[in-house]
Write a structure and sequence with these properties.
Strand content of chain A: 5-15%
Number of helices of chain A: 21
Strand order of the largest sheet of chain A: 3-2-4-1-5-6-7-8
Shape of chain B: elongated
Number of domains of chain B: 2
CATH topology of the largest domain in chain A: Rossmann fold
CATH superfamily of the largest domain in chain B: P-loop containing nucleotide triphosphate hydrolases
Shape of chain A: globular
CATH superfamily of the largest domain in chain A: P-loop containing nucleotide triphosphate hydrolases
Bound molecules: guanosine-5'-triphosphate, magnesium ion
Distance between the termini of chain B: 20 Å
Distance between the termini of chain A: 17 Å
Number of helices of chain B: 14
CATH topology of the largest domain in chain B: Rossmann fold
CATH architecture of the largest domain in chain A: 3-Layer(aba) Sandwich
Number of strands of chain B: 8
Largest interface: A-B, 50 and 48 residues
Oligomer: heterodimer
Strand content of chain B: 5-15%
Number of domains of chain A: 3
CATH class of the largest domain in chain A: Alpha Beta
Largest sheet of chain B: 8 strands, mixed
CATH architecture of the largest domain in chain B: 3-Layer(aba) Sandwich
Chain lengths: 442, 316
């Protein structure tokens, strides 16, 4: 199984020369891989077709980029186009004469209620005074859920005593206005886009509350259906933007591209965890990397920051700036990664890391071995890895109950990481996964 | 002819309800919205011609659009090609999909009671609703049911299950403070035993399969259940939203590894999503689909029928 577009392209185009323009045959081959990668990321079939056609043209006309292999050039072009496509449009919310109404809509189980509360917290932290309206009168205990969340984040929640969501929403907005809240977030019941009756009800809720922002909440795991859903919601309630949820998992999130492509509506917010502060404004470049499976270095760094203890974090930052990366750093990032939880997910986010640790096979058990190796080094060796010569390697292997081979692999991995860290420290993303810069496999 | 509850539950056949036999997908096809019909009309109208590349391409597109995914689509198309003679595409495809899904599964509710069913899945797929509906059906088929509110995480999760318990006439065992799902499972089984209930169904909090600590928690719940009754849980059902794309496969992989999944429940098939990822799951992991969710009401749960499912994949 291919994991990333970069892997695919390297395999498909591995033997080709660095010189000259991309020829038709190369590009055609590359486009086949791009197509598969996008389909695997759940981008809509038609959208893939159009996108690939557009990319193909650009790739054929692409200028000679010295130093880049054909695969790299294609990845770069695809990444740029994706970023541009998804980044078009305003990702900010609109605010008008208070109270500004935000209407949350979407399918069942997409995460509307949690997102409503998260958004309320985010806005409160940005200095607004939001209120929540519980207008999901359908799902058992949905109102209780919103009330409990409201209490946790200290945001008032309106619950009506009416069975009609239109009346409840309207009364809720009035209530918030009366209380001097400047933002009102209305949580609605999940509904299927093919359910005429409920879609009609939603349109009436919109007419009654006059929202400045209608948001469609969409699960990042959504497949080909995303386009039908988005079209239907656009037709009936003309939503202004998208909230992508459950991006803390390992879904590629191709639905984001599909919806953007067919509705033109920008993605505004992404929800990245179960905690109520885990929501953030949308970054198109990160989403592009994610869809391509290129790894999401920025998100990784943020996660690491969250997981690191205060002092540790500052120290890491200083070292990164200085382009240092010793085995002490290696060890503490390992431990950090461990605290971050889902190891595979985290490593996937890091371009090339999975690859570099090949043979060390990063699973939880192996982590303990890696740790053992580092712990068998002297403090000096950890700080000055170049000092680790042959005899020292033997000693470390013996001390940690591993083999010289494993020790060597770890030394290699550290070197690679140091290189990447240096780039990141300079404020540059390693634009292309390191495995691409190594000699082609074939 | 669709699969009946009696068949799924391993009960002696009762009077077969005509409506039940027509099957959900049959009715679904009748009520399809126009827009969605276009594609299949293409497939059906341009009678499938095995010698025609375009026919194959249309089939591929239909399967990809149904979220079957590239590898499983290639597998199905490959199998069809190998047949040479296709005849009716719908029937041929249905046969291949059925073969892929294997023998029609049963739900392990026969045997010494209480039978224990553990329900798992990512957030918002329909676990709690499925439990409510399943409890109701089991009650209708002569079983007494007890529900364990093992979602101790999400706000108001217990309240939600409690409403379903009332609707379906099942008992409820909640989290008596503490909030440890394994403890809830323990209590639920003890209560089920003491009260002589036939089936105990345990709800769990939605979790992403990438959250290793939460997946470990599921393993613990399983261990505790197995510690009370040797061969339990008798079923571990993974609830998958039919709207899910290729990530569903990864969900199935990791939940299967952590929780020993015995079957899939495919929910929200009342929308226009086809749930093709279930084919990918069966193809790669050999996990059968046992139930399908077709709405939010208490009666909206059906036994899975591979033949109906296959036909719906490429129709409408
Ligand atoms: N249309 C439709 N909606 C469904 C179906 N099954 C569940 N739902 C809805 O999906 C939403 C989520 O269902 P829940 O049962 O709360 O899902 P869950 O998996 O228990 O969710 P968490 O416990 O929050 O992870 C609710 O609004 C349900 O009514 C179905 O088959 N069809
Ligand atoms: Mg639930």
């Amino acid at each position: 199984m291919f994991d990333t577009l970069s892997d695919r392209l390297q395999t498909a185009l591995g033997g080709l020369s660095r010189k000259g323009r991309l020829d038709e045959e190369t590009v055609t081959k590359a486009m086949r891989e791009v197509r598969l990668a996008l389909l695997e990321a759940d981008v809509d079939f038609e959208v893939v077709k159009e996108f690939v056609a557009a990319i193909k043209e650009r790739a054929l006309g692409a200028d000679v980029l010295t130093g880049l292999e054909p695969g790299q050039r294609v990845v770069k072009i695809v990444h740029e186009e994706l970023t541009q496509l998804m980044g078009a449009g305003d990702s900010k919310l609109a605010f008008g004469r208070p109270p500004t109404v935000i209407l949350m809509t979407g399918l069942q189980g997409s995460g509307k209620t949690t997102s409503s509360a998260k958004l309320a917290l985010l806005l409160r932290r940005e200095g607004k005074q939001p209120a929540l309206v519980a207008a999901d009168l359908q799902r058992p205990a949905a109102i209780d859920q919103l009330e409990q969340l409201g209490r946790q984040i200290q945001v008032p929640v309106y619950r009506g005593d009416n069975a009609d969501p239109v009346a409840v929403s309207k009364a809720g907005v009035e209530w918030a206005k009366h209380n001097g809240n400047d933002v009102v977030i209305v949580d609605t019941a999940g509904r299927l886009h093919v359910d005429e009756e409920l879609m009609d009800e939603l349109a009436r809720v919109r007419d009654a509350t006059k929202p400045l922002n209608v948001l469609l909440v969409l699960d990042a795991m959504t497949g080909q259906e995303a386009v039908n859903v988005a079209k239907a919601f656009q037709e009936r309630v003309a939503f202004d933007g998208l909230v992508m949820t459950k991006l803390d998992g390992d879904a590629r999130g191709g639905a984001a591209l599909s919806v953007k492509a067919v509705t033109g509506c920008p993605i505004k917010l992404v929800s990245i965890g179960e905690k109520l502060d885990q929501i953030e404004w949308f970054h198109p470049d990160r989403m592009a990397s994610r869809i391509l499976g290129m790894g999401d270095v920025l998100t990784l760094i943020e996660k690491a920051e969250a997981a690191a203890e205060e002092g540790e974090q500052e120290e890491m930052e200083r070292r990164m700036r200085a382009g240092e990366f010793t085995f002490d750093d290696f060890l503490s990032s390992y431990r950090m990664i461990r605290r971050m939880g889902p190891l595979q997910g985290v490593l996937k986010m890091m371009p090339g890391i999975g690859k570099q640790l090949d043979g060390i096979d990063i699973d939880e058990k192996q982590m303990a071995r890696v740790e053992a190796i580092v712990l068998s080094m002297t403090p000096h060796e950890r700080r000055v890895p170049h000092a680790i010569n042959g005899p020292r390697r033997r000693r470390i292997a013996d001390g940690s109950g591993t083999t010289i081979d494993e020790v060597n692999k770890l030394l290699q991995a550290r070197k690679q990481m140091a290189k990447m860290v240096k780039q990141m420290g300079k404020g540059k993303l390693p634009a292309l996964p390191p495995e691409l810069t190594r000699a082609p496999r074939r | 002819m669709s699969r009946t509850w009696a068949e799924l539950l391993g009960d002696a056949a009762g009077v077969v309800d005509d409506e039940e036999r027509t099957g959900f997908f049959g009715r679904l096809r009748e009520s399809l919205s126009k827009s969605r019909r276009a594609l299949t009309d293409q497939l059906a109208a341009a009678a499938f011609d095995a010698a025609d590349d375009e026919s194959w391409e249309r089939l591929e597109v239909a399967l990809l659009r149904a979220d079957v995914g590239v590898p499983a689509t290639a597998e199905l198309v490959g199998r069809l090609e190998a047949r040479g003679e296709i005849g009716s595409l719908e029937d041929a495809l249905a046969e291949e999909v059925e073969r892929l899904f294997g023998e029609p599964p049963t739900l392990a509710v026969q045997g010494a009671t209480p039978r224990v069913i553990l329900v798992v899945g990512v957030n918002g797929t329909g676990k709690t609703t499925t439990i409510g509906k399943l409890a109701n059906t089991l009650r209708e088929h002569g079983r007494s049911v007890l529900l364990g509110a093992g979602d101790t995480f999400r706000a108001a999760a217990e309240e939600q299950l409690e409403i379903w318990a009332t609707r379906s006439g099942a008992d409820l065992v909640g989290a008596s403070a503490g909030g440890d799902p394994a403890a809830v499972a323990f209590d639920a089984i003890e209560a089920g035993r003491a009260r002589g209930r036939d089936v105990v169904i345990i709800d769990t909090a939605g979790r992403l399969h990438t959250q290793t600590n939460l997946m470990a928690e599921l393993e613990k719940v399983r261990r505790v259940i197995a510690g009370r009754i040797d061969d339990a849980p008798h079923e571990t059902l993974l609830v998958v939203d039919a709207t899910t794309g290729q990530n569903g496969l990864q969900q199935a992989r990791l939940f299967a590894a952590a929780a020993g999944v015995t079957g899939v429940v495919l929910t929200k098939l009342d929308g226009s999503a086809k749930g093709g990822v279930a084919v990918a799951i069966a193809h790669e992991l050999g996990l059968p689909v046992k139930l399908v969710g077709v709405g939010e009401a208490v009666g909206d749960l059906r036994p899975f029928d591979a033949h109906d499912f296959a036909r719906a994949l490429i129709s409408g």
